[in-house]
Design a protein that fits this description.
Layout: H1 7-109, H2 120-129, E1 144-152, E2 155-162, H3 165-177, E3 181-193, E4 200-210
Antiparallel strand pairs: 1-2, 2-4, 3-4
């Protein structure tokens, strides 16, 4: 009888099967790594594309802001030019109408029964704080007359004569209250005699600023 030993062959078969299992596992792991690599690469590509889009949007916004800033400067310059023209026109208009308004105010101040242009609120305040600074309603403007009126750079110089110093003070009070005059200042006067009537008079000079 012949005996055949099959144990070594069985072990070889088992080794081959084990090797094949390990090879399959290694291949599976390798494929998993490759798949994970492609997934990771895809995510990176997507993130990169998203970042690229954000950069493009930011560049577009920066370009738009630059154009807006340039346009803003141009508009600002045009507005400044328009304001300068308006100011020049207003100054010409004031120079045209302002002196006339001041002369009308001076005529109003020296009209019997009238007084300076002043708001009732301010007049009441002056009456409360300094009663002596309020003009006299009963003053007769015929007691004073102006012989010279000069205006230059909104500064006025008045020369005239009055019956006495109180008449000159009344004129100064009225001009001080007027909305058209500021910084009213009486210069030293002198007494004189009218050649025609022989009346004793006071020659005066007055300076003030005008506003219109």
């Amino acid at each position: 009888m012949i005996r055949i030993n099959l144990l070594p062959q069985k072990r070889r078969v088992e080794r081959q099967e084990t090797s094949q299992v390990w090879l399959a596992v290694v291949l599976a792991l390798l494929l998993a790594e490759v798949a994970a690599f492609f997934v990771w690469h895809g995510q990176l590509a997507e993130e990169l594309e998203g970042q690229r889009r954000q950069n493009q949007e930011l560049e577009a916004q920066i370009s738009q802001s630059k154009r807006a800033v340039l346009n803003h400067a141009e508009v600002k310059n045009k507005l400044a030019e328009l304001r300068a023209r308006e100011d020049a026109i207003q100054q010409l208009q004031n120079a045209r109408t302002g002196p006339t308004a001041v002369l009308l105010e001076l005529a109003r101040v020296m009209t019997p029964g009238r007084g300076p242009s002043v708001s009732p609120e301010r007049l009441n305040q002056v009456r409360r704080e300094s009663p002596l600074s309020v003009y006299n309603d009963n003053w007769d403007p015929h007691r004073l007359w102006i012989s010279k009126y000069v205006e230059k750079n909104r500064s006025v110089r008045l020369d005239g004569s009055a019956r006495n110093g109180e008449d000159v003070s009344e004129l100064a009070r009225r001009l001080n209250l007027s909305d058209f005059f500021t910084d009213v200042r009486l210069l030293p006067g002198e007494k004189a005699s009218d050649k025609a009537t022989g009346l004793q008079l006071v020659n005066f000079q007055l300076e003030a600023k005008v506003q219109y």
